[in-house]
Amino acid sequence: MVKKTILIIEDDPDIVELLQYSLEREGYPVLTAADGETGVLEATRRKPGAILLDLMLPGVDGLEVCRRLKREEATRSIPILMVTAKGEETDVVTGLELGADDYIPKPFSPRELIARLRAVLRRGVVRNEGGRSRIEIGEVVLDSERHEVSVGGKVLTMTRAEFRLLWTLGSQPGRVYTRDQLVDRITGGEAIILDRNVDVHVSAIRRKLGNEIDFIGTVRGVGYKCND
User: What are phi and psi of 83, to 5 degrees?
Assistant: First the structure.
């Protein structure tokens, strides 16, 4: 299978060299850009399969790069994995809210980065069976037509908000969502009648999932994700 091209937007030549070596060893074609402006132009022109984006860039910084790419129809769907330095937690949250898919802190293990990249590239595995939209991850099955969650064939009772939260996380395994993003998804314009405390919903869901409690992972200081 032909692997998708990866665009690296990073100004540190040593990190670029490490990333490029690691990716090409796994069979990924690589493009590079040493500043944000060039990165935006390359992403727009070449339409890579995914982007590894440093946040601290000369000129146009990584957050502005993310904002521009997610604003344009031509580049909005390109997955972005932010590569961040220690202490940039606030920027990570901002990047995720702008539409970035995940992040990995420096220093990083090339093996972990490749694993996270693969997860970003394979997200959104939603299958249609018998006319019903389903998500199946391990023993957990989500059925959007029936608004139903089952574990190992046993149907669980979920509130509307809990189902929306699970569907959001399960539709893109591995993607990190901030609490504010999840509030937007679960309220669906009904914030008055739905509890806005995401942590409360997550705790309730985990109790109901029983042995599948690890289905939802906590990303400290940021939010939650579905463990794929």
Answer: -110, 115
Q: What is the pTM of this model?
A: 0.65
Q: Which two tokens stand for residue 90?
A: 């606030």
* CB contact set of 81 (below 8 Å; sequence gap of 6+): 50, 51, 52, 53, 100, 101, 102, 103, 104, 113, 116, 117, 120
Residue ranges and CATH numbers for the domains of the chain are 6-121 (3.40.50.2300), 127-226 (1.10.10.10)
Distances (CA, A) of 125 to 43, 136, 149, 213: 24, 8, 16, 21
Q: Is the bond preceding residue 110 a cis peptide, omega within 30 degrees?
A: no
pLDDT of 99-132, one tens digit each?
888 888 888 888 889 988 887 786 544 444 444 4
